[in-house]
Write a structure and sequence with these properties.
Number of domains: 1
Radius of gyration: 19 Å
Strand order of the largest sheet: 1-2
Shape: globular
Number of strands: 2
Oligomer: single chain
Structural class: mainly alpha
Number of helices: 11
Largest sheet: 2 strands, parallel
Mean pLDDT: 89
Helix content: over 70%
Order of helices and strands: HHEHHHHEHHHHH
Distance between the termini: 58 Å
């Protein structure tokens, strides 16, 4: 029988999950659904464009400031999640719980292997989606040619890797596990959640991110190490942002 203390604890865990999601990836998921509806009511999704890393000012100096502010403020929910995790860390360090302590070369190696597996699958999903007309044309870099473009794109890739993996697995998986859910319930639910905030890109990226989430989830729950996922995500986005010609070569649009 559930005690009052246990009920209060479950409410706290759900509340923390909701707040962190609303401040970050959950908000992105809601906007992605609305953007998808907007695209679909305009015409075929295969004729739409999904622009990433867009310029926020015609003046390069101010555009750089906006880009850096956007990257910095986007990471604030990560700090909140880490703070909440430290409150119930117990005798084990937070770095130990998340698997971000030591093993740097091994983590990079595993992350690179995950990048190869997922990168090939992602390109395949994108190409198939474009061929079927169910995926928007991705334009990953829309900042123009400035001295700071490449560094900002690299920072954006790092931000995405840290933000998504810490919040999804470092925080989300921890909270769902403490709420009593089993491994595959956690893996599937977080994979679908990951895919939901990519919906505006079309069905191909949605399915690709489900597959990515399942692989990442299986790895994290089996190994208990977050850094390989951060590395893999960073490399995937960095390659996509810095080598957009790869998408052009396979674009059937």
């Amino acid at each position: 029988m559930t005690t009052e203390l246990e009920r209060q604890e479950r409410k706290r865990l759900w509340f923390e999950l909701g707040v962190v999601a609303a401040l970050s990836l959950g908000q992105s998921a809601v906007y992605a659904v609305v953007r998808l509806a907007d695209i679909l009511t305009r015409g075929p999704i295969g004729e739409a464009q999904a622009k990433l890393n867009t310029s926020q000012s015609p003046r390069p100096g101010f555009d750089l400031i906006y880009q850096l502010f956007d990257i910095g403020f986007s990471l604030v929910p990560v700090l909140l999640a880490l703070y909440l995790l430290t409150r119930d860390a117990g005798n084990r360090s937070l770095s130990g719980r998340l698997g971000v302590d030591g093993h740097r070369l091994r983590d990079l190696g595993h992350g690179s292997l995950l990048f190869v597996i997922i990168g090939i699958g992602t390109l395949g999903m994108y190409a198939t989606g474009r061929a079927l007309g169910i995926t928007a044309e991705l334009q990953p870099s829309n900042l123009g040619d400035h001295w700071w473009t490449i560094p900002v794109l690299i920072l954006a890739a790092a931000k995405n890797g840290i933000l998504e993996e810490v919040l999804i697995f470092g925080f989300g998986a921890d909270r769902l596990r403490r709420l009593g859910y089993g491994p595959w319930t956690i893996i599937i639910s977080l994979a679908v959640f990951r895919a939901s905030y990519h919906l505006y890109q079309g069905i191909g990226p949605f399915l690709g991110n489900i597959a990515m989430g399942i692989i990442f989830g299986w790895y994290f729950l089996r190994r208990g190490r977050l850094m390989p996922l951060v590395w893999a995500h960073f490399i995937i986005d960095a390659v996509g942002f810095l080598a957009p010609g790869v998408l052009t070569l396979i674009d059937f649009g």
